[in-house]
Write a structure and sequence with these properties.
By secondary structure, the chain is an alpha/beta fold. It has three helices and six strands, in the order E-E-H-E-E-E-H-E-H. The protein has helices at about 25-30, 65-75, 85-90, and strands at about 5-10, 15, 35-40, 50-55, 60, 80. The protein has a three-stranded mixed beta sheet with strand order 1-2-3, covered by helices on one side. Strands 4-5-6 form a three-stranded mixed beta sheet, covered by helices on one side.
Length: about 110
């Protein structure tokens, strides 16, 4: 699997997860590190989890992920929705289309 289809840190102690793709030991480790797991909504398209964290608590994501966007908003995450319909036709998401640079630790 691609990790960005299963797990992405979106804030200092919050991660967007798809537990169907993650082994128990990994989920247990997230719990041990006190990382709040926000579960991608299964009613959204497959790549709803494929977001790009711009800074802690601020993400760029597909405007098609309505239910997951609602969840993240309720958790205090700022969302910049974008139209990814053409990129999705090729099987990728916004995280797949980028090469995140190293930034100062937060």
């Amino acid at each position: 699997i691609h990790l960005d289809e299963a797990f992405l840190l979106i804030d200092k102690h919050k991660a967007l997860v798809n537990t169907a793709y993650l082994p128990y030991w990994f989920l247990d480790e997230l719990h041990r590190r006190k990382i709040t797991m926000l579960h991608v909504d299964p009613r959204d398209p497959t790549l709803a989890i494929n977001v790009l964290t711009l800074s802690p608590g601020k993400v760029l994501m597909s405007n098609e992920a309505l239910y997951t966007m609602d969840l993240l908003t309720r958790q205090g995450i700022e969302i910049i929705p974008i139209d990814m319909s053409e990129i999705h036709k090729l099987g990728g998401g916004v995280h797949c289309c980028t090469l995140p640079l190293i930034r100062d630790p937060y």
